[in-house]
Amino acid sequence: MTSLLLRIFLKGNRDLTDPGTRAAIGVLSGWVGIFCNLMLSLGKGIAGVLTGSVSIAADALNNLSDASGSIVTLIGFRLADKPADEDHPFGHARAEYLSGLAVAALILIIGVELVKSSMDKILHPTPVEFTPVVAAVLLASIGVKLWMFLFNNSLGKRIDSTALRATAEDSRNDCITTSAVLAAALIEHFWNLPADGYIGLGVALFILYSGVQLAKDTISPLLGESANPELQQKIVDYIARQPKVLGYHDLMVHDYGPGQRFASLHVEMDYREDPLECHELIDDMERECLRSHNVHLVIHYDPVVVDDPELNRLKEQVRLLLGQKDPRLNLHDFRMTQGRRHLNLVFDVALPSDLQGKEKEILHFLEAGMNRQGEREYHLHITFDAASFNS
Questions:
Q1: C-alpha to C-alpha distances, 345 to 170, 249, 315, 387, nearest whole angstrom
Q2: With CB atoms 3.0 to 4.6 Å apart as the test, which of 79, 257, 260, 335 could cross-link to 95 if both were Cys?
Q3: C-alpha dihedral over 368, 374, 375, 378, to 10 degrees?
Q4: Chain centroid to CA 213
Q5: Sheet holding 330-338, edge to edge
């Protein structure tokens, strides 16, 4: 079924890296979600009214919120597909994240309302009528939601979409909550225990939990979370394999939404290399990253001195001291300048997040270690960078 729907919606275009293809898949998920959830909400709503079950009515409202969420998802993918303009030069791809946040807000609102109705049913219990029709409606709902989970999970993996994976997880959660509703109806019918309100409350709390988790997942990229480690590794692995590249550091990846990622990186090359050849190689690397990883990469060229024995000796001494202080510490952009009465050593240190605030302690440790030999006086000038941007 998934393959058939994709053939209809994609109309022969199967390039999953194409923004238009991504938008078409998101729209497909939205329409399928709207149709399925409206049908489920209608069926459960009728069953809830006929039986007087608050848990079934709660599940019907949950499906209605899912239909609203599918509408928001559809609109989000439509907006995300809009090209860049003067006011949004990096495109509109973050609209996909905003649609996920809107869905989370809808889920939280529905969850609060369900808590209220479930508490009322607990305080003022009324009997629930259980019929084969009710059982059939709930079992059908579980089957449809299970298919929707598999459907959206498959689409989410194909285009690496957080929004679609969240939609899939929501469908999986619905399978669990509807099973709980069915259990409540069976308990009241066969054991005459007032379980409806309590299980309705449990469903409501589960919906609230799902809404909070979804909100966290969508807010995080909007706030500027770190790039996918796998993507970072692919970039630096490619850069490290290139001729003339001696090292790299300060990789920063900026996420403006799926398919709109911009990155910058410093690449070290021997200062004796022809700068025109280095420039051409850098252009090739930038184009390849855009082609292979859909990342707009800008590379800063760092010429480094490799034939100065004194500089290399001092650099190795500092590197060993850093390792003694903490094996995770490393340096780059090492250079030295002659002062009147001392030698200045200027370099950058990649600092892990748990060592932030200890910059002065590290500086004093290194200066003490370098000056302990008494050969001459060294002054260290260190720029501390975030380790998450360095390799």
A1: 56, 19, 9, 21
A2: 79
A3: 30
A4: 12
A5: 330-338, 343-351, 378-386
